[in-house]
Amino acid sequence: MSYISEVIEATARKNPGEPEFMQTVKEVLTSLEPAVRAKEKVLRENCILERMVEPDRQIIFRVPWQDDKGVWHVNRGFRVQFNNAIGPYKGGLRFQPNVNLSVMKFLAFEQTFKNSLTGLPMGGGKGGSDFDPAGKSDAEIMRFCYSFMTELYRHIGPSVDVPAGDMGVGGREIGYLYGAYKKLTGVYDNGVLTGKGLSFGGSLIRPEATGFGATYFLEEVLAHRGESIEGKTFCLSGFGNVAWGASLKISELGGKVITLSGPDGYILDEDGVKGEKIAYLLEMRESGRNRVQDYSDKFGCTFVPGKKPWGNVKADIYMPCAMQNEIRIEDAKAMVALGVPVLNEVSNMPTTNEALEYLQKNGVLVAPSKAVNAGGVAVSGLEMSQNSERMLWSAEKVDSTLRGIMKNIHKQIVDALSEYGMDYDLVAGANLAGFKKVADAMIAQGVN
């Protein structure tokens, strides 16, 4: 049995009932075969793969909070600190009912390689709660965040672990979390959280960063094929910060976004999501209604209830911006039948392993999420730099630095593929490039 197979089997035995975590472990490790074959002896001696799939620590805690009617509730909080070989743990906090340990571990594992690709000194971590902020008042959100931070503050710090926002955790939640942290510690350590408001240490371009970065990475992919974004049509899912930022940048670069989606279905806007329509996405998000149909009601375009656009709408580029595993094997088959040439994964692990394999075998170019959506954490890293300097960079400086980081991520992938004599496989290349830096640091620091 190969070293990779041994580690996958052992990890599955240790982590029963964690499908999301095992999905990403299998996807990443199986693509590392060229790197493992080249240095198997030293990797085995240092237990690199065994340590790489085992988090440094998994913190689970209860979060009691009181609603506006005086009724108490108890949720579960998580922080998975996966790997800090190249820097302090870094990764978002997600507040969603479907949050569990498997989801947290998959996200933290992916984050380790994603952060490595940015070139910034950041390790991998992730956290959150099964709390649902939808429909809650500001006072309820604040009470929950204060309770959540009462435990989390013990495990974080600017040189230890720096959380950020994620799904269900925006500027409001980060503000409350930082207020609680400051109260508990008595220290104005604004580098302990990123995604903050501009008035207390936030960075310009942070809300747009994931969508902008995903578009900049796609620019490099298309340029490698002698193409550009101009004139191309795009299917996006979601309508939150990520889809909003991507729509802004795609429109600016001459592309046309024709779909968005929500829990209720998807809209098809043949005229394109542009101008005031993009601005309206902010209103939709702030409304708390979580309905994409509001867009079609306002602008008079098609609304398709209960479905995603995947395989139902023909476009040049597919860009999932919502949830993990939203593209399944039946969607992949429909995409191939439609002749969709490129899948640019923006959300974390939006494609099941079965669907990913089918798409790649049938000639669809897949740009993987750990590279595509690294722009969000990259600008979080730049926010950390600004906090350390006690400076606020201009939007132009942040944006140009972000663009350079995404360009360099693509170069790292191409270089890794070239090193192992491989074809232009972005999925394997991203894993190989991200793995190399983390593995080298772990070997240099000894078995610990």
UniProtKB/TrEMBL annotation:
Stored InterPro entries: Aminoacid_DH-like_N_sf (IPR046346), Glu/Leu/Phe/Val/Trp_DH (IPR006095), Glu/Leu/Phe/Val/Trp_DH_C (IPR006096), Glu/Leu/Phe/Val/Trp_DH_dimer (IPR006097), Glu/Leu/Phe/Val_DH_AS (IPR033524), Glu_DH (IPR014362), Glu_Leu_Phe_Val_DH (IPR050724), NAD(P)-bd_dom_sf (IPR036291)
Positions of the Glutamate/phenylalanine/leucine/valine/L-tryptophan dehydrogenase C-terminal domain: 203-446
Family to which the UniProt record says this protein belongs: Belongs to the Glu/Leu/Phe/Val dehydrogenases family.
NCBIfam families assigned: PRK09414.1 (NF006929)
Subunit and interaction comment: Homohexamer.
GO CC, any one term: cytosol
Residues the entry annotates as binding substrate: 90, 111, 114, 165, 380
Ligand binding (NAD(+)): 210, 241
An example molecular function term from Gene Ontology annotations: nucleotide binding
Keyword Oxidoreductase tagged: yes
Pfam (any one): ELFV_dehydrog_N
Active site per the UniProt annotation: 126
GO biological process: glutamate biosynthetic process
SUPFAM superfamilies for the chain: Aminoacid dehydrogenase-like, N-terminal domain, NAD(P)-binding Rossmann-fold domains
Residues the UniProt record annotates as site (Important for catalysis): 166
Keywords: NAD, Nucleotide-binding, Oxidoreductase
Lineage, broadest ranks: Bacteria, Bacillati, Bacillota, Clostridia, Eubacteriales
PROSITE patterns documented for this protein: GLFV_DEHYDROGENASE
Record protein name field: Glutamate dehydrogenase
Top-rank taxon: Bacteria
